[in-house]
Amino acid sequence: MRTALAISLLSVLAAFGAAADTYPQRPITMVVPFAAGGPTDVIARIVAEPMSRVLGQQVVIENVTGAGGTTGITRASQASPDGYTIMMGHMGTHGAAPALFKGLKYDPAKSFDPIGLAAGTPIVIVAKKGMAAPDLKSFVEAVKAGGASINQAHAGVGSVSHSTGVLFDSLIGAKPTLVVYRGTGPALNDLMAGQVDFMTDQIVNVAPQISGGTIKAYAIATPERSPSLPDVPTTKEAGLPDYQVSAWNAVFAPKGLPADVRAKLVAALDTAIKDPNARKRILDLGGTVPKDAEAGPDALQKLVESEVARWTPVLRSAVEANP
Amino acid sequence: MPDLLSNLGLGFAVALSLQNVMLCFLGCLVGTLIGVLPGVGPIATIAMLLPITFGLDPVGALIMLAGIYYGAQYGGSTTAILVNIPGEATSVVTTLDGHQMARQGRAGIALGTAAIASFFAGTVATLLIAALGAPLTRLALIFGPAEYFALMVMGLAFAVVLAHGSVLKAVAMILVGVLFACIGTDLETGEERMTFGFTFLTDGVDFSVLAMGLFGVAEILRNLDNTETREIARARIGRLLPGLADLRQATPATLRGTAIGALLGILPGNGAVLGPFAAYTVEKRIARDPSRFGRGAIEGVAGPESANNAGAQTAFIPLLTLGIPPNAVMALMVGAMTIHGIVPGPGVMTKSPELFWGMIASMWVGNLMLLVINLPLVGVWVRLLKVPYRLMFPAILMFCSIGIYSINSLPTDVMLIAAFGVFGYVLIKFGFEPAPLLLGFVLGKLMEEYLRRALTLSRGDAMVFLERPVSAVLFLVAFTILALALLPSLRKSRDEVFTEA
């Protein structure tokens, strides 16, 4: 009896605790499904800092790695939707994953309350220095004509370089030999040494080598040129306008957040991506910050749906063709 | 040459500012303390402490992070010597003779030798980076998948040939290690292998989990059923610092270890893991009395420790000059740099010379700090051995569990160390040694990857390993060693690398 009373008292207290004005009362965990130091982790840390200031509580990064980021996202999606566990999803976990992981325990479009887009990192088509083609058009011709004699590197099934790479191949109708690496670093090393011919990857990973002249860049897959690589043409300028792809990173929460908690998180993220210091850091990396039309939860929900629809057929056929 | 001097001058001007010296000291101290905790290696340490550097300017932040890196690397050796738990693949070999020395009451000498050998190796490696960093990167680019595969084969050939006692048992252990390395998602196809449907196995077994189970937990089990030896080891402490005779004995090993480690550390494809192992093999090969190894030979600590530290340092070369992180710790440093607005790569040297040279100078300062911090600490660590074992082992177990959880935040990792602990105990009881297993595990993963990549690039033609000169030479060395060992007449002189007491 006394226990029952205590429990009901506690639950009343808990209900008060969860009341509108008091969120957040303790630090918030942001699950990053990739290793510390990678592009997604860097963006999460840049955004978490101004978010902490707005919320008045520390947003703590927890790196839960594994299975192309789906381990961390699965775990975060099962956390209680109280606003104390949020996560940094990205193009892979919330776009490509359903096509690649059969037993996926979440649905990118249904298991989450989207908070908003944080940043994008454009994809660049890069090749070894010795590649003869002077521009993207002749490069595409060379890859098509070369067939299986062309070596294309990527950083593992489910990685950004894999998804965006097979999208490139299916778009131009080429079938190069895929060479797999464990991570972008070793792939880039072999690209610089000329062991492999080309790859597609996030600007953050390849910009220093492009500027240093150790690899060649053919085009950047965004509508506008990047300030960090002003000499690299866009795919539109270079004659492959349909190749538009960016590794986006966005904040999600488990489904079922109280409306007021959600509003606070949305507002905090909004302030964070408008923070001049955070913006500068993201732009310095070669990343893009969301435009007004791309920001916020509704735009993110649409983005997730369109990304799942876009990646599923491309990746399914790529995985089947290259078992 | 005048260029080098003026560059180093600039570097030391940056590194020796009061703020940066303090940051370097703080980084080394924190790194050492955390690195000593079993399981918490440099990766977990840097990841945990990354946020506290946000308020600093980039040079200071990187100097501090680099300090944490060497500190943790060094602290890991302390754990290897004192409690027989290798925190990193590179300190596996240190457990062999280092822990034996500790058991004989020479823990202080082992720790002191490790500190001095590391300092020496660090100094040489710093000069090497400063003078030859840029040209040495070319070496990194010569090594393609075929060469790396050949290098790993050579590593395994050493292990087979030089294994202690029964070659058959050693081969079996290596193969078990290679099998463990196959657990997880296949890199090429994304199919799961040997995971039995468990999601926590989809990314394979973590090295620290395996090492902590096979060494740490198994060692505790063994000590618990054999209390006597433990009590004896505890009673004898002996002298705290190596004497002149010890140092004289360790010096040639340190020189060779430095050269081997520095060379292998430059290779971005995880060549550095072979450093300490190769150094140990060489020491044992050329020793007058190889049977001392595995029973507390001081060269068995000095060689691998200097190789370890030299490799840790020269691993910065591909990062600073190519912008390519050669291992997980360096990948984290890249992240730290990008968070601070510096994108590492060929441009760093020209765009921000004060950062580039400041960091190089701080490496030497950091090594000096480590010596300053660790020599006095040796006494403290050695006294830890006086703690009664009934208090000691629960503490070790607790730190192992916390440490392993902090790496991936996976509760299943904690359960796995218990399982591997029991497995390791069974192995010890049947006279199998865990060290070859660990080497097979580390190399197996890399070998498979490089083999498949080399064959993909050659379109399935295995001749590629013989057509490429570097790879052909490495294979030749591997086969010569194997052939020599299999000649019965030479068998008697076969050395023992993995002697486990």
UniProtKB/TrEMBL annotation, chain A:
It holds the Pfam family TctC. The keyword Transport does not apply. Residues 1-20 form the signal peptide. Coiled coil: none annotated. Keywords: Signal. Belongs to the UPF0065 (bug) family. This is Tripartite-type tricarboxylate transporter receptor subunit TctC. It comes from Methylobacterium radiotolerans. The lineage of its organism: Bacteria, Pseudomonadati, Pseudomonadota, Alphaproteobacteria, Hyphomicrobiales.
From TrEMBL, chain B:
Residues 22-439 form the DUF112 domain. PANTHER family: TRICARBOXYLIC TRANSPORT PROTEIN. InterPro entries: DUF112_TM. The keyword Protease does not apply. The chain crosses the membrane at residues 12-37, 43-70, 109-133, 139-163, 170-187, 207-224, 319-343, 355-382, 389-408, 414-444, 465-487. This is DUF112 domain-containing protein. Keywords: Membrane, Transmembrane, Transmembrane helix.
